[in-house]
Amino acid sequence: MRLDSVRHLLVTAITGALTLLFMSVLPVHASSLPSVGFYYGGGAAPAAFRDFDWVVVNPGNERLPSAFSPQQKIFAYVSIGETTPGDDRYAQLPKSCVLGQNAAWGGKIIDLAQPQCRDYLLHKIIDPIWAEGYRGFFLDTLDSYEAVTQGAARKAQEQGLVDLIAAIKAAHPQAQLIANRGFTVLPQIHQDLAAVLAESLFREWDQASHSYREVSETNRQALITELHKAQSYGLPAIVIDYLPTKLNREGWWEDAQKIRSLGFIPYVTNAELTAVGAGLREPMPRHVLILYNSTGPEEYSEAFANGAMPLEYLGYIPQFQRLADGLPKVAYPGEYAGVVLWSDGDPIDDVSGLSHWLREAKKAGIPILLLGDFQDDLDSGFYQAVNMSRPVSMAANSAEVASAAKEMNYEMPIEASTRDFLAVTAPEGSQVWLHVLDTAGGSEDAAAITPWGGYVLSPYILRTLPNKDTRWLIDPFALYRAALRLPEMPVPDTTTESGRRLFMAHTDGDGFVSRAQFPPYHIAAEVYMHRILEKYKLPFTGSVIVGDLLPGDRGLYPALAPLGTKVAREVFRLPYVEIGSHMWSHPFNWPAIEAGKDYPGINLLPVPGYKFSPYMEAVGAAKWIDKHLAPPDKQVVIDQWSGDCEPDAQVVGLAYGAGLMNINGGDSYISKKDPSITAVPPIGIFRGKWLQVFAPDANEDYFTNQWHGPFWGYINVIQTFEMTNKPHRLKPIDIYTHWYTATKLASLSALEKVYDWVLTQSITPTYVANYAHIANNFFTIHIARQGDGFWIGNATDLRELRMPKSLGYPNISSSSGIAGYNDTPNGAYYVHMDGQDSVYLALQPSVPKVPYIISANAPISAFQENAGGFTAQLDGFVPVQLHLANIQGCQLQLNGKVVASSAQLQSSAPHARVDVHCPGT
Question: How far apart are CA 165 and CA 194, in angstroms?
């Protein structure tokens, strides 16, 4: 783009009457205007650009329209007034078409008055881009000729510009065009345009001096007048402002709001137009890049095992990059919410490369958090850039904690270390969270929130106890919030639905045909069916191991296979049972088997004649169950990983490719025995591009000493359920067992007590396959500021937001796709969405007075607020219960029948339509 500083407006005196005339032109209503973003960087556009309705890109193979959402309009950048340096498409432009040179940008000004020059632009520039699939063009540098022409020559250029745009529309009638300025010819071309754009209303980039600066009031008022003229033709007016990349794009949203308040579509970005900017929407980056140098598997690194879950709770997506695999591409402003360098002491091969990458991230305004033994991972250039001295090891006679912030001593008291003493002073302007002193005079600022992010040195992050349990020494939630400057916003929540905690239950296939050790000695699955499933009638996912039920000499248990098959069919016919697969041969050690160590009886069950096959485990087993065990109206919907639950990307990809969800691994086993959030895993782990979904809670093996007793131990899972609910709700409730838990009276009794406890809770029952969809959706939801609230995109399976109370209250009437909210004692509201692909959460400072849903035990699949109340559809798996607000004096219908006006409604069916009409509102 070329800026006002290069092509100044020819400002004339603006009379008060003229100003009033154009100010009286009413702009298009903001709610009907598209949000517009611009990306001129290389490679694929950052994911956040999916949050804009219109996106302008520098055309290229990685930025084709097919790379974006079908709902978006993609415009290709085209310079028509001058050539773009380095763009080969202009290489053959005839010399006769060159009017002059743009000294600031280096482009050749094109003679638009000549037909052959216009033909070149149409056939050599526009047509090839059209052939690549673009159906929109952003026409830049329309006014370049003004720098080298005047009088009749300028009029000829203006007519040439009009003729060029007419030729583009004649050749491509479906093309949508955005013009950068072109105000002098707007009366002739407005009918061919989708919008008009101008740069630099409040802030601009001066290419000549390479600096950002304020726009003069005279130029601003002149531009406002021209933009109002464009609006008088019914065209949306887009304004781009340029600001430097301070920490977290400071000031960008505020500038965008000033532009918006004038009735224009704003976009605020950096001079290079590579940032994720702020417009009618400001995408809130949710990815946090975690650079780590552990050489073992990702899931065993401290960064993943301990660092991921707290970030996910805060609504962010940890994106892991092993440094041994190389550095990622340079990060653009707004692409990441933060960067974490988590050093566990393994040496860094490319210290200078890492240091340079982090310096560039700092320049982009991305907060940086350094954790662990990073002192030798970074060079002097980095420490100089962040105004920090390199931490230096020194001998300490004794050490003591001189001061500690309230965020320290989180799960156990900190003990100052002499062996790990590092002389370091936090940068000026920091908040020191931990200060350690040596009696000999040494000083260590061991943890600090700095002007550019923060750092915590080892050994003051985590402590490993003699029994291998781990404890946080610093509050990770507070650390991430403070160091990464995480803004207050509603975050996707995987633990709750419709204001109530999610509940599910699933059983792995182990022990299906094991005999109960009490009369009448049925097989375990039959006992489980009668004593648990038929008693509680709650959503349940049961799986089998195919090798257990194969008939004759093909299976592990020829004598029991007929009975097992009969019972499996009975279980799967139950209306509240979902069918899962626990593999063909129950692999115990997935990495070993996938490495070729196919040892039956050691790494997998010794199914006669079977040789390990990734396809048979992930897909073939499910197909066998569908054919031989499932009733006609059901099929397997989920793979329940077996053994160590560490399948590779190939296996997980096969499951997704067959339409199967997946679960298991990572079990949450926090309890009084190990009361640390380090015992609460993340949502899952990505195997390549595929998410392996972790089971929310541990199964009975953990609580029974790997099934060695005490066999009543599963009762203690209630501790896990309670400790993952307060002070933070970290996980849903998942009753996760094996069939063999029904072989002993003690374990069966414990399971019944767990179910009885669950029934005392406020829950929304669901199936684990649904939870797997919710877990996947967590990583694909988009959140952006919009107006006085937030836009949420792609929240189709995950339908609950956890919102800080400091943001205010949901404005139900001004929102779209928001059905209500429920209060919690932990400083947040649970806000219910209805599954629309695009949701808007408006906010207000006072408690809503209109009717809404406080909570329900079923997902809300539709919600429509109206002047007299609302209509909602709920589709659950048990008889629907609702808790409503503000329905005094209202008329209520449930499934088309009038019911008494009550805040508590109960349906006899799992599906409910609720109509609330309040006369006089």
Answer: 12
